[in-house]
Amino acid sequence: MATNGIGAPGRRDVLKGLAAGGALAASGLRPGWAQAQSSEPVRLGFQVHRTGIGAAYGRWYQRTAEAALKVLNEEGGIAGRPVEIAFEDDGTDPKRGAEVVEKFASEKKDVVYGTLFSNVVMSSAARAGELGMPYLVCSEGHHVASGALNRWTLQPGITDVKSQVQSMAPWVAANLGKKVTMLYPDYAFGYDHRDFFSKAMEAQGGSMLELIAIPPTETSFTRYLPKIPKDTEVLYHVMVGPAVLTFVKELGEFYGKGGHPEIFGFIDSLEAVDIASPGLEFLDGTHFWEGSPRYKQPDSTAFDAFYRQAVGVDDNGASVSDAREVSTYAHMFSAWETLFVIKAAMEAAGYKGPDDRQAFVEAIEAMTAFPASNQHPQGDKVFNGKTHQVFGHQFISKVADKRLEVVHTTSIEDGMYPDEVDYTTMPF
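RESULT FIELD:
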């Protein structure tokens, strides 16, 4: 893809890529590759956070992947071959994550994908690189695009934190304030927010008053909240794990019924949590980032409707079988979209088995865009084969009447930044 001279695609390149890349992304078919070359199934390994602090995400990632698999197989699989997915719990643990990759490699799985938490990605990707195993992550960390990993590791299904915060900082600075205090988890994902949102706000003339790191296994947050400076204009929070509801409730108790700074949260602090839960009333009027809007919006696409129905999620982002089971809607689409990238790449590469893993990676590197479709219901995206990172739209939503209403959607270009690596020049 051509660039604007600093490594990021320009407007003309973006639009050209969306048009030119559409056929590949939509069908994935290489000319002449219309007939199944083997009746043997394609075997994928899905590294799932079934236990540990990522369990809420893991449950919905698996549910989403299973729904996508059903759709894919009903539509003919990959080049006519059926597809199987084996799910293995990594405990949201780095050591166990690497062991799961080893297990899948020993079982001769074709591709491994699914990981979300950054600490697990880092250890698992290193082992995947040693084993020559394609490793597609469904994370948000900047680890892939930073060049910290290897050529076998790609993130084609969800944008990274650097892109997300860069695209939203101008709106935050213009609408909420410029003196910011941040509460973030004390590990790699939180450090991405700390570093990149700080830089993005400073570029808007803002300043970071306090950076408060909180262990991701913390169960109570009352001792951290008094550290928030009184002249804070924007309180930026991004917490994860099973105690997120406690965090948000304690934040409300801390401020009581009095005034408080404008509050901007990453939805991670409220993923899998019902906004109508008692104790969350103070969130009314606050804002959140969403990777994909949890609540059906007036302008929601037919692609989103197809996806919701397939996964079994209602218009409020909860399970159709149990309204108390709230989805991780802002993230789990990556488990769906990544599977269809795998399909497109395998068909483009004429993939037959593990000996073709390198060709599979090269096929993804050659992709430029994924137009919005049933395969990509979150919206259209641009893929950078050099950095192995996808770029897409972000959504800023406001809490109103116990639901989230989108008030701003960023452009793809808002989140683009100069390349920091060129994986295509690295050996396998």
